[in-house]
Here is the input.
Amino acid sequence: MTAEITDNDLYSAWISIGNGHFQTNASFGLVARNKLYSGNAAHWFNQVQQVVYEDNHWIGVAMQAYGSNIDTYEGGFSQNLYLSGNSYSFSFGGDREMMTLDTLVSHSQ
Here is the structure.
């Protein structure tokens, strides 16, 4: 799947940009020069590949608004992401982390 989200003002009650839990394998995307107003996270990338995320400005608009993540909660991997020139403001919710790189942990025996 290829997607381009550029030069927009986006308002959301939840996550501004992302493929979220149980929606995986987004690839070949460009997200650039946007203003993102969100009540939750700026981006939620789960198992994404080949994505450019640059020059975006995220503004939290709710008390639970918090940062972003790149994760692999459903297994698999994320790779070849380029993040540059982004800014984040008004992150009050959760534990106020601006970026987390969470992964699925397997304890096989």
